[in-house]
Automatic annotation (TrEMBL):
Localization annotation: Cell membrane
SUPFAM superfamilies: Cadherin-like
Signal peptide range in chain numbering: 1-16
GO biological process: homophilic cell adhesion via plasma membrane adhesion molecules
Domain of life assignment: Eukaryota
GO cellular component: plasma membrane
Transmembrane segments: 685-707
Pfam hit, one: Cadherin
Function as written in the Swiss-Prot or TrEMBL entry: Potential calcium-dependent cell-adhesion protein. May be involved in the establishment and maintenance of specific neuronal connections in the brain.
Membrane topology recorded in Swiss-Prot or TrEMBL: Single-pass type I membrane protein
Lineage of the species this protein comes from: Eukaryota, Metazoa, Chordata, Craniata, Vertebrata
Protein name: PCDBG protein
Primary residence: membrane
Length: 712
């Protein structure tokens, strides 16, 4: 049952008391110990939801937590004597870890001893040799019985069967164990009774009490020698732990006043525990005590050994040798990870717990005092939670894009001399959070495409990158909202959602649309998604897909007699100007003129770039009165496009002859060539312009005359 209320360990660093429970040793598997959920103030469902688990101090798991009920139960039977020997109390320590949030508390279960062992004498027959000169109240040491139980269940006292010569006295050693001394009640007489036999019984304090019995045979010796005497009744020595086999421990010395062989003394170690017999040996002749095996302070701190000296006549005496172990700093601390979060979110706030661990050193004193540190510069720190319990927490905000994982070394060091240390490596990865929006390499992209390219032609590719990882860095593209007045541009192009490739959806005509803009949006795959926008400017490149168009002279048949040249015209006389337009641009609209056909070679020439038709020489009487020229107009596109203009030229002596001819022209011919609406409109404009000029001239003359008269 629980004997103390559990106080929860908060990850903020608040210290917690250790929860203490108890359970009898050898308890069956599944035996109830305590209800963890109740002590934590949680329901069993909450305990299960927070993934509660036990972390033992050692390698073996003796207890387990029932996730459905929150009960702490026995998983493996525990033998107190096997786990702790004679040490008290015998504790099984563990931690209870809770997730979401990460919390921990320490607990321990005390194994209460049950009376599962009876006292046992290693020798079933004990022989004592006592001289008949021994006086009443003389004391004689008896071999001890062994009982691994502790407390009331351990050996409590000795008793002997009925005898007229002795009674027994139970004494306690410094380590708490009990031993027996046989006390002489009356003088022995070898001639009357050479041997006295009786039994000795070791009784424990269990319920019911258990006991062990041995036979004591007292051999009465005739008066022929003296009892050996030790120089000291108690020898106290100190030995460094880890001392090697055969290391000297102590030298005991006893003397005998007898002479001859009776003064020869033999030394031996009395059986008072198996551990003493396994650890020490004595030279029977010299009394030198040495180690039979290396000793460990952490296992046993003090040994109390009984040494017996036996004279040549068989008389014995005893002394005690107390061997105290001196601790040596021979055990480095141990770092025991109780909880480790291998991955944490990069958005985790400062002081987020990453790992919980304990530092344990089995040494004592300064050798067992430890400190813990985190070498190097890391965005993490160590927080002390309790004695030798630490939490690794975040020190600042983390950024997965700068550092995806951290390889940290926790170093624990004791305060011994020389100090010993141990290092533990912790690998913590960062989980990416969608905290970075995609970024285009340019704010404005410009792509050029020639007009008349087929549908599906690639314009190019836009590229956006995202500093996040995984799905948070997966970028998809789409056309974004268009600027006001540019809604039609969305139908001209498309964007591939995965690659960002731009393709044309319609035939583009430079003469109809020279450039347009669209907005492209890049969004990542995070939740919620982040996005960025860039402007795509598409420039349409002109192609030579339009031939030149002749505006003058008009292409009707009346143009053949449209130009008059007097016969007195000299070289360079301007005959006409061929007017041509090309709706293309650039070199596709650069025009050149040449004379493709003429009736009189050498009479006329045309300007290469101006299109002006001039006389190449003076007109002569021999030249035909009517001339016909064909002018070829060609642009500089690839391939070039061209057009032709036909000029009709009449060579006249006087312009009045022409007017006379026109006025007497046959009516039928005039009817054949009626004026076009355009010619009527031009005639109207010319008449109106002439009237306006004449009116302005008359008004000017009138104003000038008025001014003159006014001055006069």
């Amino acid at each position: 049952q629980a004997v103390a209320l559990i106080l929860l360990l908060c990850v903020s660093g608040m210290r917690a008391e250790t929860a203490r429970y108890s359970v009898p040793e050898e308890a069956e598997r599944g035996s109830f110990v305590a209800n963890i959920a109740k002590d934590l103030g949680l329901t069993a469902e909450e305990l299960s939801a927070r993934q509660a688990r036990l972390v033992p101090e050692g390698e073996k798991q003796y207890l387990q937590l029932d996730q459905h009920t929150g009960d702490l139960v026995v998983r493996e039977q525990m033998d107190r004597e096997e786990l702790c020997g004679q040490s008290e109390p015998c504790l099984v320590r563990f931690e209870v870890l809770l997730e979401n949030p990460l919390q921990s508390f320490q607990a321990e279960v005390s194994l209460t001893d049950i009376n599962d062992h009876a006292p046992v004498f290693l020798n079933k027959e004990i022989v004592l040799k006592i001289t008949e000169t021994a006086m009443p109240e003389a004391r004689f040491f008896l071999e001890s019985a062994q009982d691994p139980d502790v407390g009331n269940n351990s050996l409590q006292h000795y008793r002997i069967s009925s005898t007229d010569y002795f009674h027994i006295y139970t004494r306690r050693r410094s380590d708490g164990r009990r031993y027996a001394e046989l006390v002489l009640d009356r003088v022995l007489d070898q001639e009357q009774q050479a041997e006295v036999a009786f039994s000795v019984t070791a009784v424990e304090g269990g319920s019911p009490p258990r006991s062990g019995t041995a036979l004591i045979r007292v051999v009465v010796l005739d008066i022929n020698d003296n009892i050996p005497v030790f120089s000291r009744s108690l020898y106290t020595v100190r030995v460094l732990e880890n001392s090697a086999k055969d290391t000297p421990v102590a030298v005991v010395s006893a003397s005998d006043l007898d002479s001859g062989t009776n003064r020869e003394i033999t030394y031996s170690i009395v059986q008072n525990s198996e551990e003493n017999l396994r650890t020490f040996k004595i030279n029977p002749g010299t009394g030198h005590i040495r180690l039979k095996k290396p000793v460990d302070y952490e296992e046993t701190k003090t040994y109390e050994t009984d040494v017996q000296a036996t004279g040549g006549g068989g008389l014995t005496t005893h002394c005690k040798v107390e061997v105290q172990m001196e601790d040596v700093n021979d055990n480095a601390p141990k770092v025991i990870i109780t909880s480790l979060t291998s991955t944490i979110s990069e958005a985790a706030p400062p002081n987020t717990v990453v790992s919980l661990f304990n530092v344990w050193d089995q040494e004592s004193g300064n050798n067992g005092r430890t400190r813990c540190e985190l070498p190097g510069e890391q965005p993490f720190s160590l927080t002390s939670l309790a004695a030798d319990a630490y939490a690794l927490v975040t020190l600042e905000e983390l950024d997965c894009e700068q550092e995806a994982e951290y390889n940290m070394t926790v170093r624990a060091c004791d305060e011994g001399f020389p100090p010993l240390s141990v290092s533990k490596t912790l690998l913590v990865g960062l989980l990416d959070v969608n905290d970075n929006a995609p970024s285009f390499s340019q704010d404005v992209y410009t792509m050029v495409l020639s007009e008349n390219k087929p549908v599906g032609t690639s314009l190019g590719r836009l590229s956006a990158t995202d500093a996040d990882a995984g799905n948070n860095a997966r970028v998809r593209y789409e056309l974004g909202p268009l600027p006001p007045g540019a809604h039609a541009a969305a139908s001209f192009v498309s964007v591939d959602a995965e690659s960002g490739s731009m393709r044309v959806l319609r035939l583009l005509d430079y003469e109809g649309l020279r450039a347009f803009k669209v907005m492209v949006r890049a969004a990542d795959g995070g939740s919620p998604p982040l996005s960025a926008q860039a402007v795509l400017r598409v420039v349409v490149r002109d192609e030579n897909d339009n031939a030149p168009v002749v505006l003058h002279p008009p292409t009707d048949s009346s143009a053949t007699a449209g130009k008059l040249v007097p016969r007195w015209a000299r070289e360079g006389y301007l005959v006409a100007k061929v007017v041509v337009v090309d709706v293309d641009t650039g070199q596709n609209a650069w025009l050149s003129y040449e004379l493709a056909k003429a009736m009189e070679l050498g009479l006329f020439r045309v300007g290469l770039h101006s299109g002006e038709v001039r006389t190449a020489r003076a007109v002569s009487e021999r030249d035909a009165p009517r001339q016909r020229l064909v002018v070829l107009v060609r642009d500089r596109g690839q391939p070039p496009c061209s057009a032709t203009a036909t000029l009709g030229i009449a060579l006249v002596d006087d312009f009045s002859d022409v007017f006379l001819q026109l006025s007497h022209a046959p009516a039928g011919r005039q009817k054949q060539q009626p004026q076009t609406p355009a010619e009527d409109l031009i005639t109207t404009y010319l008449t109106a312009a002439l009237g306006c000029v004449s009116s302005l001239f008359l008004l000017s003359v009138l104003a000038f005359s008025v001014a003159k008269f006014s001055k006069a």
